[in-house]
Amino acid sequence: ASIREFCKRIGVTKQDNTIEMASLESCIREDLNENAPRAMAVIDPVKLVIENYQGEGEMVTMPNHPNKPEMGSRQVPFSGEIWIDRADFREEANKQYKRLVLGKEVRLRNAYVIKAERVEKDAEGNITTIFCTYDADTLSKDPADGRKVKGVIHWVSAAHALPVEIRLYDRLFSVPNPGAADDFLSVINPESLVIKQGFAEPSLKDAVAGKAFQFEREGYFCLDSRHSTAEKPVFNRTVGLRDTWAKVGE
Fold it and tell me: Where does the record place the tRNA synthetases class I (E and Q) anti-codon binding domain (predicted)?
């Protein structure tokens, strides 16, 4: 559907023409936003421990698509130890940063409100664990005292996480028209493929090749049919949630 829409938008011409990659990506993004089920995957994981969480865990209900109730819902395991994305935490931040900050609160997607209390670091100063507390009365609802919690981040239960390889494909060339360069090798994008080792919610173990997912807050991905194994699926990025090249070209 997205390819047909792309062809419809660009039309037919007798002259040679160069079409911006962003035009194709926009069509793909619109199609997948409308039709791809949602799932959670953490691409650059750091462990988060909820110190006052009691019990081994529970199941939380998540919609497969926020705007299409007919696509149903799924049960996702939650526990006192989870993975979050490293970019979703800072020890200090300004007011524009709407994620987890030391001493501040954030909501875990379709789960609880948590507050970052302290961190643990390795010898090089890298954060290895974030320690938090949670408000047990905020499962998929606002705090009873009316306080506002604006940020929402995604997560994966550490005890139930599915190890995944995530291949972040991007544009092969760093310029719109590589044919105009004296040497096309000089304009190859060094980050056209970045491979990450992350964790995903366990439902993705049943993913099949050819079916696209929106990894919430990350982009659109599909299973790699050649390199995936039952123990470790491989997911390839089709397109990001937004055009990250727009600002680069400005």
Answer: 152-224
Q: What percent of the chain has pLDDT over 90?
A: 78
* All CATH 1.10.1160.10 domain ranges in the chain, comma separated: 1-35
Mean pLDDT of 46-75: 97
Q: CA separation (Å) from 192 to 85, 97, 101, 120, 167?
A: 21, 28, 31, 33, 10
Residue 248: per-residue pLDDT: 44
Who's near 88: CB < 8 A, 6+ residues apart? 99, 100, 106, 153, 154
Q: Nearest 5°: phi and psi at 88?
A: -90, 10
| CATH number assigned to the domain covering 39-160 | 2.40.240.10
Contacts of 217 (CB under 8 A, 6+ apart): 85, 153, 154, 241
Q: What is the pLDDT of residues 147-179, one digit of tens each?
A: 999 899 999 999 999 999 999 999 899 888 888
Please state the CATH superfamily assignment of the domain spanning residues 1-35 in this structure: Glutamyl-trna Synthetase; Domain 2 (1.10.1160.10)
Tell me what pLDDT residue 15 has.
73
Q: CB 121: neighbour CB atoms within 10 A? A: 11
Look up residue 149 and give its two tokens: 């919690």
pLDDT of 245 reads 56
Rg (CA), the chain: 21
